[in-house]
Amino acid sequence: MGIQATVKEIDDLFDELDEDHSGTIELTELKMIGRKLQDKVSPIEQAKEKLEGEVNEMRKRALKTEQELKATEMEAIKEAESRRRISREMEEEFNREERKKAESQFAEREEAKQRAAAMKEEFEAKVAAKRAAKPFMTSDRYLSMQKREELTHEFEKALAIEKSKADSACHDARRDMKRSISSPEFADKVMVEALSNLDTAKGLGKQLASSNKLDQFHADLDSFRGSHRSLSARSTISVTTAPKDDARAARPPPPAQDAKEDPRAAAVAAPHPLRRAGSTKHLGPKLSAEEIDRILQQREHARAKMDDATAASLLQTLEKHGVLVDTKERKWRCADGRSGDLIMPHLSNAEIEKLLISRVAARLRHDFKIAERLRNQLTDQGITIEDKRNRWESADGRGGSVEPFTLENSLVLALQDKLKVLKKKPAELLAEWDDNGDGIIQ
Fold it and tell me: Is the pTM of this model over 0.70?
């Protein structure tokens, strides 16, 4: 049968196939053995076919899944491309809207400029027509245009001076308020004095009293008010001089003192010659070194107090006696060859504080010229100011902080109200007084 096995195995197989144990294998036994083998092989073949079917089914499913994955990938690619296209379209639409918006705004601005130009031209035309139609003001009823311009000019000058006085009064009030903030009674007194110093009517009267045109101004203004009583009711400006000024003017001058006792009096009484160095012609008597040092000390103290008139007068006294002062080299020289060093006076802390507060007030008023002048004056006295550190130091080792002064809110508001009135131009005040708007005050 083509089967290789051992004798025992062959004997065992033969005994198994020989069911009747006859020692021979008959055809019937072989058929039965074939049927048994077929019965055993048939389930195996069925299982094989089933497995092959399952494998084929799995292959089909894998192929279908692969196709589905490819389709999904293609759809994702198409969707991404669609999103990019939509994003580009939205960006282009946004850019178009922005351009349209910018063009619209530019057109609106140009239109507004044109309207403003047209309104300006129309206004100028109305002003020109109104000026052309304005009747000439005769001297019988109205002030002439020339006189009105002169009054306006005088008024502007007086207001400028009053503004300067207001700044000075504000500075003094701040200083006094800082030094006496612990005393309410003194603070109220300072406030009342500050407001009285800011009185525009009184200050205007004092300023106009010093002008050579005061009499003519009074006559014109009295004539003007005689025809227009409403001006006196609306105006708060008085041009009468203060009685104390008249009393001060009528007061006899004090008697002159000896030049040796008061160098200032000698300087005021003496002329102011301009002499070159080395000229001894027409010079006064020689001064001793002690007298020169004394006058120089008085001059330095006057400079420290910002009394420029006294300082200049003392310098003229020295020049009259042949003494030249070199502030840069801190030297003085006489025409006879003598020389010496300028004595550096020592300012007290109170004097230093006063100068520092004046400088801070000048800086707050944006009066940088005065502030720089005060700084140079302190530098001449050996005092260094460091604005970044808010400190000051002197050559003798003293130092301190530059504390900004404070002021009560009520006083600040009162001073600001006064300054608002002072800052108004004459044209604005005339516009307030002109009820009819015809440019004529009735």
Answer: no
